[in-house]
Amino acid sequence: MKPFFFDKTYKMKCMDPSAKRLTKLYLVFALIFFLFFPPGTASTQEKQPVRILTLDLVNETPGRGIFELGDISNEPWVREKNYQIIPRSKVKKVITDMKIKPSQLNDLDIVIEIGKAVNADVVVFGSYKSDKIGNLIVVIKYADVKKGEIASESKYKGKTVNISLDDFIINVDKIIKNSDNVDKVIKNSEQVPDDSEADSIEREHSVGLRLGYPFIFGRLGDAVSSNFLYFSIFWRNNLFTENLFYEFEIGYFAYKDKATLVGGSTTGHNFPITVAALYQFELTDRLTLYPKVGLGYMLSAISTEFLGSGMSSYLLGKVGLEVDFKLSNSFSIILENPLFIAAEVEGFDISFFYIPNLGVRYAF
Q: What number is the average pLDDT over the span 293-310?
C-alpha cells in the first residue's frame, strides 16, 4: 500500500482505496472529538467555587448587639471543599451602603438581599441568647440565595458552644446538591437527619421558699382574732412550652379565734397544698411576670381550749400574680399576691385567704 500525504493546499494527491477509507475514518473521529470536547471545555477545566457569605450572629436580647464570627477564609478545608468565603470588607461595605442595622442580620429577606448583592450561593447567619441558668443557645441558619429560603439550621446549647465543622460542611453541601447550578463541585457528604428541633424547649427546674402574712375573710375571718406568718416551699417546672409552667406548693399558716364561753380560744393550723399553672412574660432582662391559677386541698387541725381538737378540710381555688426579679442566672427574688378561695368540705362554708408574700427562687 502506498503512503498518503497532504501538500500545502491540503489536497490528497496519492491514495489507494484502503488509505482513502482510513482517512475518512480519522476525520469522523476528529469531528466527534471536537463536537463533544471543544477547546476550553475539557474535563480539566477549573470549576466555579461555592461562594459563601457568613454574617455575624444577632443577640435576641434587645439592645445587646451582635457576635462576630471568626474569619475562616484561609482555612485549608475551605480550599479543599472548593469554597470561597466572601471577604468581610466587601460584606461590611454592602451592609453600610444598604443602611442595614446589626439587629436585622437575622431577617431572612434582608439576608437574601445581602447575599445577592455580593453574588453569594449560600448565606450562613443566625442568633444567640442566654437562658436563665447561664447556658448559651446558638442557632445557625443556612440559606439558599437562589431559592430565597432557609434550607436547614443547627442548634447548639451549653455553657460554652463550639460550632461543628461537620455540620457546616454538611449543611452547605446539602444546599449545593439541591441547587440547579451543576457547575458547582462538591464532595459527597454523609446525610444526617436534621434533629435541631428534637428538644427545642428551654427546660427550667426551680425550687423556692415563700414567707408572708395571711389576711382571712369570710366565715373564718369573722371569728379570727390574730394570724401567724405563712411559710411555704414550692417546685416549678416547664409544661409543654418554654413559657408555660406548673408549680407544686406546700404551705403552713395558723390563726387564733376569739375566745368563747363554751370552748375558750381556738387555734387552727392550716396546711394548704396547691398545683398551679403559670405563664411567663419577660418584661426586661431581670424582671419577669407570672400570672397563675390553680387548685388544691387544705387540711386544718383545730384545737380548742376546753373542747379538745379536731380536723377540718377545704377545697381550694387559687389565683395570683407573681413578679420575679433576677439577681443572677440562678437566683431570683419573688413577690407574690395570691388569693385562696376555701370551701369547707362538710358544710361548704366559703372563706378567703389573701396571703401576700416575699420569697427566693433557685433555678437549675
A: 85
Contact 275, 247 (CB under 8 A): yes
Write the pLDDT tens digit of every residue in 21-67.
555 555 555 555 555 555 544 444 456 888 888 888 888 765 455 56
Q: What is the CA radius of gyration of the chain?
A: 38
By the 8 A CB rule, do 172 and 148 touch?
A: no
Whole-number Å distance between alpha carbons of 136 and 155: 11
68 and 124 share one domain: yes
CA dihedral 155, 157, 161, 163 (to 10 degrees): -10
CB-based contact 31:77 (threshold 8 Å): no
Residues 156 and 246 in one domain: no
The greatest distance separating any two alpha carbons of the chain, rounded to the nearest whole angstrom, comes to 148
pTM, entire model? 0.50
**Does residue 349 sit in the same domain as residue 209?**
yes
| Ramachandran area for residue 107 (φ above 0: left; ψ -120 to 50: alpha; else beta) | beta
Tell me which of 159 and 357 has the higher pLDDT: 357
